[in-house]
Specification:
about 1200 residues; alpha+beta; seven-stranded antiparallel sheet; 24 helices; about 30% helix
């Protein structure tokens, strides 16, 4: 019999490194230490191994005593977050040098004047002379010698890590293979090639993933070598983001991002299944953040996700991370409490860590008595042996309570202040869990909450209560479960390949062949890693989606009927409807080769006699101490039990604290903990939850934040429902929509932050419905409109409004609304965005206060008749109806969530906080007005229109008057903007002046008196054309306001609306440009600004779906205005047509440049032209259209932003 040896299972986290070790006798021991502690050790994992083996810090580790080390690490994630990876060069197809910089053109923070995009990971970019079309045609062969010369030049500059990305290289790999071979021959140490790293369609996310791999793999390799050097002869394995282990030498950058959290999910699932729970919500709360996950029979994986601002297209555990952890820093802004998103991390850590850190969530629990320093590891202070410092926590909370009292008059005790912050953190975590469960059609009340991570047990009952869950499972190793998961995990090899074929009987053989080809190297890899055949399992999957949509669902490979059934079941559960008329496409196939874990099952612990006097077997466990704990606004005398002293069958009724070496579990009042036969802890709610929370209707700084987040969460849930269920690309992929909730007076309360141009203007639509249907609104009615003169903006933007009635069906309590940009509503051009319309009728079907649903019945025939009416009816009514159904469904989600809120808090309270959140936003805007200077500005547009504004400040009333008197009368073209658009622009500008995260609502407008002359281009009369008002004039209004306030240079001031189509294809996009500079910051290149933030279709998807070729998409250097701070540069987009089509452009700043501010120079104007097949050039105006033949190119140069401050000053 072979001698048993040690195994070490390690999770090196951001704050702590956790180690679970299996001793040679099979016993389990644990150890926890700070991840960064350079005064005491170089590497936490090795220090922990030495500690458990009893080896001196400077002595070699005896490798012969260790069978295996299985490890998850945040080394790569930290390098990514801190941008400390390997210096990397990117080689990419000519014309796409800026593709990863521009990406999908959206800005991350919608109200930021200074737009900060994620820092690029590559230090240099080189273009490869080559081009392959979407269907494999070689349009330009690889210029081999030029590529070799460029590779050598970059190598000579010191680059050793290279990412290689070619357009359509995921499928047509020859050019990438040739460049990679040359790079390896030259001597590059790390060569990451896109078709090897992520063989999936989408240039941007595949490119990002390839760069990440090149950037992080050398860092990982060095870390692996550092660990391996001290573990001679030991089998070293690392956890991958997909939840499977791999040999350390095969651990890649692209698979390392979720290395630690993936171990947690494996641990949570394996231990929960053993305990008899097959539907769990994983709740992993650490020091910096909380990871939540969903399991109902199989691991959920995402194949496309975003981490630290980088788009990743590689299989990863589906984990939703929220910036709420034990280290989340507590803030008070004068009106409301906030917890996070910033973290005190491990260094300095929370205030109680003895390193002069700020107050954090962990400190709240120390203040509340839920964490007892004497039962918490003593690893603090200069010597690393002192307990948590409760004294400094009490002092700091007393100071904070005084500060809050001075600012608000609120007389909370320090304990109540601490509990308020915990309530907010719990709310943030509960909202995160809703996103992965309720949002996807899962009833969370049927699930068990599986808690792990150092801080989860402290909040387990509270989070469960917030979600209506009644059962919490906590494993004995919950405090180190991510590390335990490393030991329970399988070895996995995943391979995927894009196929992009219709799901038909004829293509079944192709899918099978591709899967077989992928399975061979995957199984070979397992054999190389020493997995015996009898422990191997192969899982074959197909990624299916409806034709024309972008959301693939993964099903097991089988017969066509079987795969369709799996897909439809999953799709209906997530989106609540099917699209039977759409074909199913197999986007990709994937193979998972699994080497099944050889970890032994848990054994029931041996029964131990209780210490102390002889007692009956059923005696209640003895408390180690009794302390005062604050919970639910009251102080409780609370017993503290040691987990080690509890035995199977023991029951502990809350309030109670269960302390152990690596975690603290708080059993809240109304809950009971029970120890199961396997020594697991099962927490159950044994008393019914209070049906309603009694909190009063006067403003409370804690509940203000809770309600702000809840209202926003409802709008976001509506938005997710709409994005998921919509039919058209505009809504589903470009995200050209907004969702919002309103009070009974039609005042905006919260909106999902999608498009600013929709923001203030939806309230006008609500008020129209209220006014025109007064006394006639019945429960179950839903209304729609797009009338520009009656609350709408332009015709493609249709608003759907649902009133929310009380239970008796008598009174209207709230309204919810969704607005989406429909692909076509008629008009003289496909897409309903004509550049040359003169009256509104030429832009499509006008909908004025139409009853869409009557008492629960969709008025389908009447809706079809309306959309088919008029001189220029809608072209694809079936698509309109599908999108309208999705909007109705999104509204219904809002209705359900508002009803739930009323049930929980009571109507009076919900209404009161709708007023309070508006008051809070109003006060934030008044504070801005206090420091603004009055000003005026005139802004001439290319079309000849003039926008004039005068801003007056009333210091005594703390209000501003925004007067547009002097603006041009309504125009004969389509640049007229309805007043709703003007109000949206005013609301947006004043919200951007508030450098704080306040909700955008009607309160922002209360200090503002806006004067818009009737019959002007900003308040036109029927039948004025308005299509450009929404997309172009709105941008000009924002820049006019910034000009009057002297805040910043103009942005590109246009959306560059580009449409093309023929009888078979129609496409619409808006194109980014430069943002304006301001005092202290440069403008940003190639990004959407101000009133829009729509996404751009990926270049490979565009070419796959439409008969066009994107020749290039680059930053237009030198187009931003000079200044002390320079304006952002615009872009150049060249589209070659492969079929005859009509193309139209609706754009601005082609004649008049975007202004500079405070001595800054203007940005350069944009240009549009067509390059004809005969070599001639057709110059186009800002609003123009042209007929293009195959081979002709449409070129769009977008404007740069204005500079700020005198150049050279």
């Amino acid at each position: 019999m072979t001698q048993q040896r040690w195994q070490f299972w390690i999770d090196r986290g951001g704050t702590f490194t956790d180690i679970v070790a299996r001793r040679p006798d099979g016993g389990i021991v644990t150890h926890k230490l700070l991840s960064e502690n350079p005064e005491h050790y170089r590497d936490a994992a090795l220090a922990g191994i030495r500690h458990l083996l009893g080896v001196a810090a400077d002595a070699p580790i005896p490798g012969e005593k260790i069978e295996a080390v299985k490890m998850g690490t945040t080394v790569a994630t930290n390098a990514l977050l801190e941008r400390k990876g390997e210096r990397t060069v990117l080689f990419i197809t000519r014309g796409f040098r800026d593709a990863l910089r521009i990406a999908y053109q959206n800005r991350p923070k919608i109200f930021a004047r200074h737009i900060v995009l994620p820092e690029l990971l590559y230090a240099k970019v080189v273009e490869i002379e080559e081009r392959v079309g979407a269907h494999g045609e070689v349009l330009a062969p690889l210029a081999t010698e030029a590529a070799r010369r460029d590779l050598q030049a970059a190598y000579d500059e010191g680059y050793r890590s290279i990412a290689i990305v070619c357009m359509h290289g995921y499928r047509y790999q020859e050019h990438e293979k040739q460049v990679a071979a040359m790079a390896r021959a030259i001597g590059y140490a790390q060569v990451s090639v896109s078709h090897e790293v992520s063989p999936m369609m989408k240039l941007v996310s595949r490119g990002d993933t390839t760069v990440v791999d090149a950037y992080l793999s050398p860092i990982l390799r060095r870390y692996v070598e550092q660990v391996a050097a001290e573990l001679e002869g030991v089998r070293l394995m690392f956890m991958q983001s997909n939840g499977g282990l791999t040999d350390a030498r095969r651990f890649q950058g692209k698979d390392s991002i979720l290395s630690g959290p993936a171990g947690g999910i494996v641990g949570a699932v394996r231990t929960s299944l053993l305990a008899g729970f097959d539907k769990i919500i994983g709740f992993d709360m650490g020091g910096t953040s909380t990871d939540v996950s969903h399991y109902a029979g199989e691991f959920e994986r995402a194949f496309e996700t975003q981490v630290a601002g980088v788009r990743m297209r590689a299989p990863m555990m589906s984990i939703h991370t929220v910036a709420a952890g034990g280290g989340s820093i507590l803030h008070f802004d004068g009106a409301r409490y906030r917890a996070g998103p910033d973290s005190a991390a491990a260094n300095p850590g929370p205030a109680s860590y003895r390193k002069n850190g700020p107050l954090a969530v962990t400190d709240c629990n120390v203040m509340l008595g839920k964490i007892q320093p004497k039962f918490f590891p003593s690893v603090f202070g200069p010597g690393g042996g002192e307990p948590l410092d409760a004294e400094v926590v009490r002092r700091k909370f007393a100071d904070l309570a005084r500060e809050i009292k001075q600012a608000t008059g609120d007389t909370r005790t320090p304990e109540q202040v601490a509990e308020g912050y915990v309530d907010i953190a719990v709310g943030n975590m509960a909202n995160a869990i809703k996103q992965i469960s309720v949002q996807r059609g899962h009833d969370v009340t049927e699930y068990t909450l599986c808690c792990f991570g150092g801080a989860a047990g402290q909040h387990a009952c509270l989070v469960a209560d917030a979600l209506g869950m009644t059962q919490v499972f906590i494993h004995p190793l919950a405090g180190v479960l991510s590390a335990y998961g490393m030991g329970l995990a399988d070895i996995t090899v995943m391979r995927e390949q894009a196929v992009e074929v219709a799901l038909t009987q004829g293509n079944l053989r192709l899918l099978e062949d591709t899967l077989r080809k992928l399975a061979i190297p995957a199984t070979d890899e397992l054999l190389r890693q020493g997995v015996p055949q009898d422990r191997m399992r192969i899982v074959r999957r197909v990624h299916l989606r409806y034709d024309g949509t972008d959301s693939a669902l993964v099903v097991d490979f089988g017969s066509i009927a079987d795969m369709v059934e799996q897909f439809e079941s999953a799709y209906r559960k997530r989106y609540s409807f099917l699209m039977p008329k759409r074909a199913l496409l197999a986007e990709a196939v994937s193979v998972e080769a699994i080497g099944v874990s050889d970890a032994p099952d848990e054994a029931a612990p041996a029964a131990r006699a209780r210490s102390g006097p002889a007692q009956a077997a059923d005696t209640a466990p003895q408390a180690a101490d009794t302390v005062v704990m604050h919970s639910g606004g009251k102080s409780h005398r609370t017993p503290v039990f040691l987990r080690d002293a509890l035995q199977p069958g023991d029951k502990v009724k809350g309030p109670a604290i269960i302390a152990e070496a690596n975690a603290t579990t708080v059993v809240e009042p109304g809950w009971q903990a029970e120890v199961t036969p396997l020594a697991h802890l099962l927490l159950k709610r044994v008393e019914a939850r209070p049906a309603r929370v009694a909190i009063g209707t006067s403003v409370d700084p804690v509940m203000l934040e809770v309600f702000s987040n809840l209202y926003m969460s409802i709008a976001e849930q509506m938005g997710l429902r709409l994005e998921a269920t919509a039919y058209s690309v505009n809504i589903k992929e470009r995200l050209d929509f907004s969702c919002a909730l309103f009070d009974a007076q039609g005042q905006l309360i919260a909106n999902a932050p999608h498009l600013p141009v929709h923001l203030g203007s939806m309230g006008e639509s609500i008020k129209t419905v209220m006014r025109e249907n007064a006394g006639r609104i019945s429960p179950g009615n839903v209304y729609m409109l797009n009338a520009p003169y009656n609350g709408g903006t332009h015709l493609p933007d249709i608003t759907v409004i649902t009133p929310v009635f009380d239970d008796a069906g008598k009174g209207i309590l709230f309204y919810v609304g969704s607005r989406g940009h429909h692909a076509d509503v008629g008009g003289i051009t496909p897409g309903s965005m004509p550049p040359d319309s003169k009256v509104v009728e030429e832009e499509g079907v006008l909908i004025d206060n139409f009853l869409l649903v009557e008492e629960g019945r969709l008025r389908e025939e009447e809706t079809v008749a309306l959309l088919a009416s008029g001189k220029y009816p809608a072209r694809n009514i079936e698509q309109n109806l599908a999108d309208l159904r999705a909007m109705i469904a999104a509204n219904e989600k809002g209705v359900q969530e508002l009803r739930r809120m009323v049930e929980h808090f009571g109507l009076e309270v919900v209404h009161a906080y709708m007023r309070h959140v508006q008051d809070n936003a109003e006060e934030a805007v008044r504070r801005v007005i206090d420091v603004l200077k009055p000003g005026e500005f005139s802004y001439e547009m290319d079309s000849g229109g003039l926008i004039r504004v005068k801003i007056g400040i009333d210091r005594a009333a703390r209000s501003a008057t925004i007067d547009f008197t002097g603006t041009s009368p309504q125009l004969p073209n389509n640049f007229n903007a309805p007043s709703a658009v003007c109000m949206a622009a005013v609301l947006y500008v004043f919200r951007t002046l508030v450098d704080d995260d306040i909700p955008l609502n009607a309160g922002c407008l209360k200090p503002l008196n806006v004067i818009i002359p009737e019959g002007s281009m900003l308040r036109p009369r029927y039948p004025a054309a308005v299509v450009a008002g929404n997309v172009e004039t709105s941008q000009c209004i924002t820049d006019t306001l910034y000009g009057a306030l002297g805040v910043m240079g103009a942005s590109q001031g246009t959306m560059n609306n580009f449409t093309f189509g023929n009888a078979e294809h129609q496409y619409y996009e808006t194109i980014c440009g430069g943002s304006g500079a301001g005092a202290g910051f440069d403008g940003t290149d190639g990004v959407h600004t101000h009133m829009t933030n729509t996404r751009l279709t990926d270049p490979e998807v565009l070419e796959w779906r439409f008969p066009v070729m994107l020749e290039s998409f680059e930053i237009r250097h030198g187009s931003g205005g000079m200044g002390k701070w320079h304006g952002g540069n615009g872009v150049v987009r060249r589209v070659r047509f492969l079929e005859a089509m009509t193309a139209a452009i609706l754009s601005g700043h082609r004649r008049i440049p975007p202004y500079g501010m405070a001595g800054g120079e203007p940005g350069k104007v944009g240009r549009n032209w067509v390059e004809r097949a005969d070599g001639s050039t057709l110059l186009l105006a800002g609003a123009d259209k042209a007929e293009l033949e195959p081979g002709e190119v449409f070129v769009i140069e977008t404007p740069g932003g204005g500079g700020y401050g005198t150049p050279g000053s």
